[in-house]
Task: structure prediction
Amino acid sequence: MKNIINTITKTEQSVAALPLRLVAGILFVAHGAQKLFAWFGGYGLEGTGQWMESIGLAPGFLMALMAGSAEFFGGLLLIIGFLTRPTSFVLAITMIVAIFTVHINNGLFMSNNGYEFGLSLLAITVALLVQGGGKFSVDNQIQHALNTSK
Result:
């Protein structure tokens, strides 16, 4: 009985990463695209860079490029589950910076531009950092291929 429970738990944990990766990945891609390409109502690198400079993140253009790239490309990597742990680490740091430089003084709730959303994304990225990409990830396929070639 204990072996069955362990097998079920391991499978659930492995599969649980998929919705976390997909939802977070889509959100990060969209936010990164706002910063990099001015898609989805964003301001692009110039506008985002000017705003970042205005809140003390200088040089603004470089900060916008770094944040936008981390979010956009990191989101793509999460969606496919490739390099999930290092990507999650970078995105977690990005969320910590966003929370403490932009949102912390506004309180918790999004309605006041608070840190609620950033904190949620931080929790997802930390969970993926600990758990990895799960069963349905490129990371898992690579690990399986390496294990079978031994």
